[in-house]
Amino acid sequence: MGFRCGIVGLPNVGKSTIFNALTAAAIDAENYPFCTIEPNVGVVAVPDERLDRLADLVKTRNKVATQMEFVDIAGLVKGASRGEGLGNQFLGHIRQVDAILHVVRCFEDDNIVHVDGSIDPLRDLEVITMELVMADLDTVEKRLTKAKNQSKSGDKKFLAEAEFLVEVQRILDEGQPARMVNPEDETQERILRELCLLTTKPVLYVANVSEDDLADGNPFVDRLRAQSENEGASVVTIAGGIEQELSLLDQEEQKEFLADMGMEEPGLNRLIHAGYDLLGLITYFTVGEKETKAWTITRGTTAPGAAGKIHSDFERGFIRAEVITYDDYISCGSEAAARDKGLMRSEGKEYVVQDGDCILFRFNV
Questions:
Q1: How many other C-beta atoms can be found within 10 angstroms of the C-beta atom of residue 78?
Q2: pTM
């Protein structure tokens, strides 16, 4: 699978509640800081009606959804980059994920204490962002010191590296995330990858609200949205308590609950899809009576790379991909009918797989 989203935020903002709802894991979600010490990990099926329709159409015996992995990381506090609140350990956990879901508390509740004594989503957001920036500054400064020492020999490679690192340091010093850095060539891109900076990871803000504010939001959410727009980020509004309650119901009970709430689907479905989009992922399908399966790939992946998700032999011995779009598959009703109508295309090694493609790979090893 290989796609991991880390759930971060201050203590008592609802991270573990949302994680519980995502994974139905029933982990502790107590009203005190650092309830989550070791990160909890859950694997979640990505909801996709297309998979359901394809499986029903061919009467498949086994339906397999694509999946994402969510990591519930303990609440960060001011000073985490200096080791406060077990900060170094928690920052290390963030370093291992592909994207960050930043949960921001946007609800009032006197029974749930806030570590800073009041609700202020922008202050909370800044605390987390600055701790990640400070941790990245430490990483960059160490690498810069090494590059400067190596550049004393006059080696142009190290001189160029030091110059680039000074620019990265400048952006971080201004309190901006390393996502704002624009590498000019492959060498700079490689250096940035090697640094594994926390603030290069894509971020999705999750506004955790009360049930009463789920439909229309509130001033806290409005402020968070305004800030996220400045960053080019997105916000998903979730009522963590409702979602956790939903996760404990069976499918029919969920439908009744959602209807009573005036909701078409669980908010967590939107969260999962938003995380999926955040990582630039798409889905293709393999369809058959024995098994119909959704596969996750990065947008822009060519046919051989997509085949390699199934098995390395498929990529190594790739001959061609026989492709039917999802809409054509549904309208025709079967692979054979799509082929007869000329709607199954034969694509070669340069073909870039599109979201929703139904593919039969031909290979020889």
A1: 17
A2: 0.80
